[in-house]
Amino acid sequence: MKLQYFLRAEMVTDLLLTGTFDAATDAAVRSFQGKYQPEVLQPWADIGYGDGTPTGYVYKTTRWKINNIVCPGSEAMPELP
User: Helix 23-35 vs helix 2-10: angle between axes, to the nearest 10 degrees?
Assistant: First the structure.
């Protein structure tokens, strides 16, 4: 629910607050990742994981970026494998 609320506010979308990670939530996450691609996805591509396109996964860098928007400077950029 918190993820959907954040995405709804950040991406200015009409995403329904259902508490379920459904297709609409996945699309909103992918849109968020596209907007912040250099910080969220490119670090993975640079070390050989993926090609920098949105995945829909809320993993290390996506979670970090969300938290950094909500509470700037609250946590360091995560180390990647």
Answer: 50
Question: Whole-model pTM above 0.90?
Answer: yes
Q: Which residue type does 58 have?
A: V
- Cβ 80 vs Cβ 60: under 8 Å: yes
Those residues with Cβ within 8 angstroms of residue 8's Cβ, 6 or more apart along the chain or in another chain: 14, 15, 17, 28
Residue type, 45: A
List, for residues 50-62, the tens digit of each pLDDT value.
999 999 999 999 9
DSSP assignment letter at 67: H
Q: Report residue 24 as tokens.
A: 């609409």
Contacts with 30 (C-beta within 8 Å, 6 or more apart), sequence order: 54, 55, 56
